[in-house]
Amino acid sequence: MKLRFLLLSLFFAATMFAQNGTVTGTILDKEFNNEPLPFANIVIKGTKQGTSTDENGKYSISLKPGNYTLVIGYLGYETKEIPFTIKANEKKIINHTLEASGVQLADIEIIQVVSKEKESALLQEQQKAVEIKQSIGAEEISKKGIGDVAAAVAKTSGISKQEGSSDIFVRGLGDRYNSTTMNGLPLPSNNPSTKNMSLDVFSTDIVEYIGIDKTFNYKNYGDFAGANVDIVSKTYKGSGMIEVGSGMNVNSNAISQNKFYLQDGPNFHGFSNQPIPNNPLNGYNFTTSWDKQGATPVGSAFYLRGGDSYSVGSNGKLSFFLNASFDNNYNYKEGARRGGVSTQAIAARDFFRQSYEYNTSSNAMANINYKINSNHNIKWNSMYINSSSQKHEEFRGIIDVFDAPGNGYLSRSTFERTSLLINQLLGNHTLSNRINFDWGISYNMMTNVIPDRMQNTFVPLDNNNPNSPLIVSDLNQSDNHRFFQEMTDDEIAGNFTLSYKFGKTADDTYKGKFIAGYSARYKEINFDATQFNFDILEPNVNLPIIDLNNIDGFFNQNGIDLGYYRISTFRGNLSNPNALNPQNYNGQQIISAGFGAIEYQFTPKLFVIAGFRSEFIIQDIFYSTSLKTGKKLTDTMEYLPSLTAKYEVSEKQNIKIAASKTYTLPQFKERAPFLFEEVGQSYFGNENLYNSTDYNFDLKWEMFPKNGEVISFTGFGKYIQNPINQVTVASATNDISWVNSGERAIGLGIEGEWRKSIISRENNTTGEKTNLGFGINVSYLHTTQDLDTEKVINENPGISVAFTNQDSRLSGASDLLVNSDISFNKEFKNDKSLTATLTGGYFSDRIYALGVTGKGDLVDSEVITLDFILKYNISKNIGFGFSARNLTDPTIERTQDIQNVVVDSYKKGRNFSFSMKYSF
Hints:
mainly beta, Immunoglobulin-like, Ferric Hydroxamate Uptake Protein, Chain A, domain 1, Maltoporin, Chain A, 3 domains, 22-stranded antiparallel β-barrel, 5-stranded mixed beta sheet, 8 helices, 51 strands
């Protein structure tokens, strides 16, 4: 009897379940070429049943027979209620095409315009994601007047940019701990001193949005502990468009100079590459002048962009986007520059520095997106970037405290150019309702050159009279030189990911997904450098007086004929047949990785991603330099687990957790025994460096009070075994190198973010809109690391250090970071609009370099910045912009702690720009 009752109950339940119907459909966006709309909210009115559209804009809900109202809303736009009736076993399809104007079409229409360029859309994606992530889109970038990707990233919580360099610090972790990608594929470095591409070479014109992952994702390479910055290039959506724009800019410091100087040789557009002359050791054959040249310090900008899209067949779409731009700027700074400060607070070098800078950036991008149908999409992306930096610096003062008493003169003119060609092909394929296949391949070519860097050093004729006339210094054969450097970095990379959905539910969704994939990258790097030293042969008393406005009057063929100097390289002069062989190091890096993960929804509120990645790493380096010749071959295997989970406290609140293991590789420059010489400081690599191991943990609470708003707090921790640090080596010249400085480093911190809409009004009669909002993010960080002198000496034969302290904060880590903005937007009739934004930033003191032998740490002082941006569109076609940046113009200061000596001090000046655009 019990068995019959059980069977009858099961039959009745199955019958009732089979009588359910399903409402399903796809939401598209007409304003963006009928692209699928992800993350739209679909709710059955009066019930708790609901869902969101997936990445393909699709939704599905299982319902009992009856009459219902479908409620559709998204990102603060007008909510749409759609009545419908469903029968038993019926599959009701309701497809919607969204239109900005709100005109009702033959079927049901929803008022929506959505793109990942929009700030609100990215917040919606952040809310839905299981991972802990942040994004900044083109809309927010434009609103804040941000011109490059580096500045955009620095506006997010826990991230700061180091003054005077391209380094980005994430939660106190610098360049070595971060990674950069474009569309998920790796980018090369454009500088032998850094691991990552300088983000300021990427104009925000080509960006759809920037994704910032501060937690490790199994799809990313494991050389990570700070953040992965992914630049997603713009894909054109909409009808045909051509836009042209121009602008000008000035720096208050630069424009106030009576004369602005640069070096001879480089051209206005930044595409110069001065070659080494023929027979450089056999007579004077250099064609560029040693003498500085005048320039007018007014910057300019120009861009041209366009895009269009076409239907291909009944289901296909073909779109393209083209962008070309050029901009430049001038800067000037002056102030104290000191080096070699002793424990008695005496500076071996004490200068007043003047620095004139000219920077250019040229960008060209083309991409084609072919949507074959709703299941298959292929995208080709190609980009060329040429960036240049020209700097003329003059130093006056004490060149060496043990020599002349002062009034020495040193000048250095450096032109650096980077060209980067990026080629990518990407595909997304839905093979079935359960199976997706995504892939991407890239080939990148980077060239970085320093062609014809010039340096001169002059000292007083009378050592006892600092005001006596200047003559050429003969203290060191490299005091007067020309330097040529070229670095190439070619890389092939690929990502391949297959996913399979499982655990099908009654409403045709899936609880789980299995992911498996493979990624690989092959990198070849070549670095060559040749320095031509003008070695002074005559005693000082026989050298002519130098005219600083006519240095060519000494360094010419006549100077060689008179026996004043000879030209040589580090390998020797003309008598050595190998003298012109450059110093070089060459390397290859191969990373082959397999990964897998399971994503599963355990309950309606709990989502978990468990991932695992294994990487086999080969990093080989071969070198022939002034220090030594040799090679270093290394290979390692890394096993990298990760776990991410999200618990939905409510529809508007999430708790997220992430834990992972990663590693940190030494960079080629840090392992190559090559002597990099700067003014007053030299660096060399250490081939005995090895990987650090990183353990990462994050816990985040986030709430989304209204669409476009967020409040969040994140607690995080980092534990790093065998951290790598830059240290001063105990030697006569106090050179800097890199070592695994201790057993461990620890970082603990908390981040908070708040974005709030203060005013959001719309006039239903005129259609005018008024919005006022603000955002603020704050990060507090505590770091500590042990410094082990004995460990360093034992692991690095020939290198000796003596740390001043036994423990220290992490270099580059500010205890407190704050970024904030307030923005006003007014949309008038006739396509007129006004946007005004005020942004501010603050970072507290941070260590630049660790102290040794009783000397204090070098510490960068706190900085407060303030920017104002104004944009006004007078019609649909014409717009104007104005910006005023660095309004506080703080003193940038670096101090040697304990001795309390300022070693670097300057002001950057205020920057003002004006722009206009016209759209066809």
